[in-house]
Structure formats: C-alpha cells, structure tokens
Design a protein that fits this description.
Length: 310
C-alpha cells in the first residue's frame, strides 16, 4: 500500500470513529492468514471511560472506502461497538437456547481456502461463558461462498462480523457445533439461506414475541446477572435484532415490559438483572444444560450393540 493510500485509510477510519464516539488509539501493521500485510486499528472510548476496553479492527492492506455506502456503514458499526464496549463482557452473546458464549481469537480478515474451494474463510473460537472453569469451547472455521460474498458491501471485518457471529449462533442452535476441552476446527457454512434477496436482509431465525422475550431474559440473566456482577447490558443491539429477525425498538419495548414486571432495571438502552430475575437461576441453568447436551453427538444404542437392520 502506498503512503498516501494508507494515510487516506487511517484518516477516514479515524473520522468514522470520532462520529461514532470512539477514539483511535493506535495503528500498526499485521499479517493475514497467508502472511500478507494488514492494517490493525485499536480503538477505545474517550477519556478514562472504561479504560482498558478496546476494539481491534483489522483490514486488508489495500482496503479503501471506494463505495458510497462503505463509510456510513463502518460509522454505524463503530457506533454499535462503542455501546457494546459498555457491556460488562463486550465479547459475550447468548444463543436462543440459552448458551452464553464468548467470541474471541478471530483471525480477520477473511482468507481464501487453501483447499482450492471458492470460499472465504475466517477462523475463530467460541467459549462457553457461564462463569465456570470447564474450558469448553469450539474452534470454528466460518466459510462464505463467493455467491454470498457478492451480496454484502465488503468482506472486511466491519461489514461481515455481525452475519458471521449470527451464523455461528445459528449453527449452535442447530446443534452442529460441539463444545470440547480440545478439538479440531468445526465448519460453519455461511450461505445464501441466511439472506432474503426479496426482502434484501439477513434472516437467521423466525421468532415471535414470546421467543424474543425469553431471549432477552436469558441475555440479561447471563450477561448482567452472572457475568456482569449486576452491571447493565445493551438491549437495543442491532446484532441481536438481526439474529432474532426483529428491530432494536421492538427489543426495547419488550425490555420495558419486563422492567415493569420487576425482572430487570431499564436505563435507556441498557438493562440490569434484578434479584427476581436471578432467582430464576435453576431454570436458566437447566436450559443451558439442555442446549449443551443438544450439541453433543447422539448415538443410536441399538446400532452400537449391533442390532441395526442394515
């Protein structure tokens, strides 16, 4: 990358960060999966607010905001990250089945498949984040087809992270990722089945009010009550809205209802768990164990005993 092009990338990224309420802390050079140079941005919140919580953004060296919608999209992404950084555990999300997961060690940007397949791949890891010390995790390889890649504005981290994370959550919902203490990478196919060309939006899960309400309660229980020591978590997260096929406003509406029931304390777009919600611990622990068991391979005992009719 030329000095002028790199300077232009940094300048535009810093401007987007400022508009989103973040501060660019450092810019360094990194390497992608194939050893090609990348540009690594470290961002945080202004002043001493939540010092130590940072966002790492890694872009391919030659990336440029050459399309009119790229800069507004990254500004919106960073605005969301600024609010997410205020969560007690910004890296944590919850699945519909009630599994709290920590997303980490993602090796952005995407790299091309070494097998020769026409796919973009990003490696990462998700850990079961229930406060225990069991070290259960899943190493993942999310693969995006070339057809799917044509749908999105760019395959860079800010434009792809949400649909990749949600595809991983959906794969967990399907019981197709197993949590182990060690193990090989497990595939997460990100295909056009998650996108409606007619509606021009991602569709991961069809949910109703009851499903979304249960999701919110589980999110606040785990991320605020168990992992966050009662600190509030962001309710109006567009990443959750995409995952649940709803809107941020709808999530806030339902959170307001539960606040009225005494299950959470709502302050703007953030909610904290109450003792009444924490008292439902046995219910949420049971849901976690059931979801975790669903991800384990199931064997037909009659076949194991050699009684199968083959």
């Amino acid at each position: 990358m030329t000095v002028d092009l790199k300077s232009n990338l940094v300048s535009k990224l810093e401007s987007a960060a400022t508009q989103a309420g973040m501060v660019l802390q450092s810019v360094t050079e990194g390497r992608d999966f194939h050893g090609n140079p990348t540009t690594v941005f470290q961002l945080g919140l202004p002043g001493n607010e939540l010092a130590g919580r940072t966002l790492k953004l890694e872009l391919t060296e030659g990336f440029d905001f050459d399309k009119p919608d790229l800069l507004p999209a990254i500004t919106a992404h960073l605005a969301g990250e600024a609010k997410r950084l205020r969560n007690p555990r910004p890296e944590c999300y919850v699945t519909l089945g009630g599994l709290p997961l920590a997303f980490g060690k993602f090796e952005w940007p995407f790299h091309t498949s070494v097998s020769g397949a026409d796919t973009h791949i990003v490696h990462g890891e998700i850990d079961l984040a229930d406060g225990g010390a069991h070290n259960l995790h899943a190493k993942v390889a999310a693969s995006v087809t070339l057809t799917f890649a044509e749908i999105v504005p760019s395959m860079e981290q800010p434009y792809a992270e949400s649909f990749v994370y949600n595809a991983i959550r959906k794969t967990v919902d399907f019981g197709q990722l197993e949590f182990l203490k060690s193990g090989n990478r497990q595939p997460v196919p990100v295909t056009t089945r998650y996108y409606s060309r007619w509606q021009k939006k991602f569709l991961f899960t069809e949910t109703n009010d009851a499903t979304r309400l249960e999701y919110l309660l589980r999110k606040v229980y785990w991320l605020s009550g168990v992992l966050g020591e009662g600190k509030p978590v962001w309710i109006a997260d567009p990443r959750d809205a995409q995952y649940l096929n709803t809107t941020e406003a709808d999530l806030l509406r339902m959170a307001g209802h539960e606040a009225g029931e005494g299950l959470m304390v709502l302050n703007g777009e953030f909610a904290a768990a109450t003792p009444l919600l924490l008292a439902k611990a046995p219910e949420y622990q049971a849901a976690l164990e059931a979801s975790l068991n669903f991800t384990k391979p199931q064997f037909n005992e009659s076949m194991r005993s050699g009684h199968a009719n083959m």
